[in-house]
Structure formats: C-alpha cells, structure tokens
Amino acid sequence: MSNVKPRYRDLMTPELLLWGLIALASKAPVAMAPLALVFFSRATPGGYALGATLASAYVLGEVVGAPLLGSRLGRGRMRPQLVIGLLCGAVAFGALPLLATGSPGWVIATAFLAGAGPAACPGGIRSLLTRLVGDRDVARALSAEAMLTQITWAVAPALVVLLALQVHPGAPLVLCALLALLAGGLLLRLHEPATQSTATRAPTSMSRAVMAGWPVYLTSAAAMAMLATAELVLPALLEDRAIAVGWSGPLLAAFALASAFGAFCYGLRRWPGAVEAQSLVFLTATACCVTLIVLLPGVAGIAVGLMLAGVFQAGVMVTRNLSLRQQLPEQAHAAAYSMMYAVQGAGYSLTATLSAVALQVATPATAVIGGVAVTLVITAICAVAERRSLRAPESGASKQPQGPESGADR
C-alpha cells in the first residue's frame, strides 16, 4: 500500500476547478426547483395545491428522464448530449414564469420537461469526474462531489425563499434557467476523456450491464428513503414534542452541512475493507443515528441524531458510487449513475406517500422507527444479492483494476 497521504490539494487543477463550476451550476437548479415551484405557484390562482403538483411533476420528470436519457450516454460522446439536456431544462425553467396565468396542463407539462431534460446530467457529470482523475484519486474526487452537493442543498432553500419573497415569485426559476445555461456553456469548454474500454466493448448489452448493479441502486434508494422519512416526518415530530416547527429549517441545514463534513472526512484517508463492506457499516450507523432523533429529548437531541446521521450518510453515498464504478464496465458508468439517481428519486417519492399514510395511523416517532426498520430489511436483502453477483463467474461486469489505492484497500 502506498504511503502517500491523500490530499484534496491534488484535485485543485484548472480542469477539475472548471468541472466544479459546472457541477455547482447544474446541481443548484435541481436543489432549488421543488421549493421554487411551490413559491411560484403560491402567487397564482392554483396556490399551494398547484405548487405540490408542479413539484411532483418535476420529480417525475427526473425519474423518467434519468434512465431513458442516461442509457444513451455510454454510446457516444457525452458532452453534446449533456449540453442539449441542460438547454432543454433552461428553456423550461425560463418558460414557467411566463405561464403563470396559462393553462395548468401546460404549466405541469413544462415542469415535467424541466425535470426530464437535464435528468441525465448528474450521472454524466459524475462519470466525467471519474475519468478526469486517476484511480488513486477517485474516492477523494467523489467525496468532494458529495461535499459540493450537500453544501448546495443546504444553501438552496434559503436562496429560494429570499428571491421569491424579496424579488419576485418567479425569480428562483429564472435563476435556475440562467444556471442551467451557464453549466451548458462551461461544459463545452471541458475536456471529455475517452473511455478506456471503448475499443474492447464487452458483448453484454448496455441495458444488461446497467441492470447488473441493481443491488447498489436499491440500497442507495433505501438509504435515501430512510433519511427522507426523518426529513418529512420532522415537522410532525417537532410539533408532537411541543417544539416550534420553525426549527425544521435549521435542523435540516445542519444535517446537510454535517453530511458535507462526513464526505470531507471520508476523502482524507484510505479506509480498511472493501467499499461494499464499508457501505453496510455506514448504512447501519446511519440507521442507528436516525433512531436517535426519536430517543433523545429536545431540539438538541434531534440535532445530534440528524447531524450524526448526515456524517454517516455521506459515507454511504460515496461508497455506493465507488461500488458501482467497480462492478460495471466503464462505458456503463454514466448510465448506471443515472439509473441510481432515478431510483433514489422514486424511493424519495414513495417514502413521501408512505410517510403521509403512517402519520395518519401512528405517531411521528413510530413512523420514523418503521421507516428505519423497512430500510434495514431491504438493505439486508440487497447485500446478500450483491455478494452473490460479485461471486458469480459470469456476471457480465468488469471490475476496475485494483491498484494500491483502489477501493479494495479502502
């Protein structure tokens, strides 16, 4: 094993800094859109009901668009496809404020397009990142991406509220359009390295290669669903304990920042064990920490549980990305990341529905515990399936070369 200490400073190259700007400009609209659609609709005759419908249509667009468009990314140059997707998203975001008094059907369809058009970008941009760095820096690069994501998610809600209330209800959507345009323009300047496996494609079809990673997708969705349970039930939990519901915002921001800190810590060193084992440890720790929010008293207790959950949740997501990268051939990475993104979105939406049902028949604390229990059962099933697929001699997936700083040594 190499004695070279991992350093984030090694990632500070002009090309990776440009990638960081692209990632920030493309992630911010995704983080802002659901709440921006709610505030936009608040000032229309449709009110909050239309806002919830638009947010659902946007998420549905992401869920549908990510696997459909992502499956095409491994069949040629990704950059033009990603730019077209961002342009479609920018047009849709920019059109929404102009449709404020139009037919609700057109507004809903436009919100769907805003989600579907750039839906393959998160997976494609992550795949570009792993091509731009060497194998020894991949884990650190994915940790940096997770940090950027969580910081964006922490800042986005406050920015939406500020613009919608102080400037114009449609201002957040206009900003989303401008950021998508900026990401597309910067993406044209980013070098796209060729895949190492382009010349020696495996006979396995792209769809079969992508579906080989289903245990990773499902465990990622389970992890997202567990945290979604805590987030969506949090206001009811606070109210049940006679705590001001206004604490929800600061608590969720603290969770996001703690997750960014956890991603930073993961990239600081090499961790023992394979990434699959690491992911299970992190996921179990996350579940225990989510349970703490119903066991510890007061705002301080909930904050401790959420922040610890955020730290370990970051480890889950980074190791899931590393595991997917190791299990699948390189030309399938972008499509696989897009598939995982879609499954996570579907898991979040399903969790929102189940949480609403659970709150009608049980206490908020029971709803959180139930969500954690279901998540752990799904994770156990997927872990067994993942081990069997890794042991199968004809799995159709090609492992990444295992160097001294590869995932097997982490």
Automatic annotation (TrEMBL):
Superkingdom field: Bacteria
One annotated GO molecular function: transmembrane transporter activity
Gene3D superfamilies referenced in this protein's UniProt entry, alphabetically: MFS general substrate transporter like domains
Transmembrane segments: 48-70, 82-100, 106-125, 146-165, 171-188, 209-230, 242-268, 280-296, 302-322, 334-359, 365-385
Keyword annotations of the record: Membrane, Transmembrane, Transmembrane helix
Pfam families according to UniProt: MFS_1
PANTHER family: MAJOR FACILITATOR SUPERFAMILY (MFS) PROFILE DOMAIN-CONTAINING PROTEIN, PTHR23542
Protein name listed in UniProt: Putative MFS family arabinose efflux permease
Source lineage: Bacteria, Bacillati, Actinomycetota, Actinomycetes, Pseudonocardiales
